[in-house]
Design brief:
There is one protein chain. The protein is of the alpha/beta class. The chain has one domain: Metallo-beta-lactamase, Chain A. Helix content is about 30%, strand content about 25%. It has seven helices and twelve strands. The radius of gyration is 17 Å and the shape is globular. It binds zinc ion. The site of zinc ion (ZN) has 4 residues, from loops.
């Protein structure tokens, strides 16, 4: 399913049904004035559908870059096919392990670059900033901020399970928005280390992030884009994180 989120940013992908509900696996596309950029490239399990959607959306344009939030398979498993189809594409990673293994036979290693958080990338006049991920499911997980549209791409962070009626929807198309329970169920399984986290510190870092970046849209890979009431949704995630940490915290206060 191809959906326009805001300005020139599109959401592509599928979802899988599990015990907790549906889980989205998205690829985001910035059309970027003829020099498209992909954020993540989906799972090899969804290769056929994702490639069809990307071809339809790009309509013959060649993406310049694919930026990976991290190298876990739902985010990078389709990379070899993306590289086969667009052999001039440049891959930006924060962790070279999986791209090295999967891409090395397909693309020259010179087309794979590791960029650390705090670094910006300029593509066709657009500035993308790599942001230290506040929720990491791999040590190299990073978030990406697009200054032009105020969109923060958050990898597994801000993910949520959805019901069959909510497939492909954005937060403003879900009655009442995304709930605390939806965030909580997802983060509880995606970030199992939260049992060792002090919620107050993590939540303070989330507040600081909101103050530092003019965020108008949050685009998680495992959920539809949050494009309404950003502060409210961040507060709901904070409540979910507080609940998860409190449920399982076993250390000293
Ligand atoms: Zn679904």
């Amino acid at each position: 399913m191809i959906r326009n989120i805001t300005a020139d940013i599109y959401q592509v992908g599928e979802c899988v049904s599990g015990a907790s509900g549906h889980e989205a696996v998205h690829v985001y596309v910035l059309m970027n004035n003829g020099q498209p950029i992909l954020i993540d490239c989906g799972s090899q399990l969804h290769r056929t559908g994702i490639m069809q959607a990307l071809n339809e959306l790009l309509a013959g344009q060649t993406p310049s870059y694919v930026l990976l939030t991290h190298s876990e398979l739902p985010h990078a498993g389709n990379l070899a096919q993306v590289a086969r189809q667009w052999p001039s594409i440049h891959v930006i990673v924060s962790n070279v392990m999986l791209p090295y293994i999967e891409i090395a036979p397909v693309l020259p290693l010179g087309q794979i670059t590791a960029l650390r958080s705090g670094v910006t990338l300029q593509v066709a006049g657009r500035t993308l900033e790599f942001v230290e991920a506040l929720l990491k499911d791999q040590p190299g997980s990073q978030w990406i901020f697009d200054r032009q549209t105020g969109t923060l791409f958050t990898g597994d962070g801000f993910g949520y399970y959805h019901s069959a009626e909510q497939c492909g929807r954005f937060s403003d198309e879900i009655a009442g928005g995304v709930s605390v329970a939806q965030f909580q169920a997802y983060h509880c399984t995606a970030f199992r280390f939260l049992r060792w986290v002090v919620a107050e510190r993590l939540n303070a870092d989330l507040e600081e992030l909101l103050a530092r970046y003019p965020i108008t849209t949050i685009a998680p890979i495992h959920g539809g884009a949050l494009r309404s009431e950003i502060q409210l949704h961040v507060n709901r995630l904070q409540t979910a994180l507080t609940n998860i940490c409190a449920d399982s915290y076993v250390g000293d206060n």
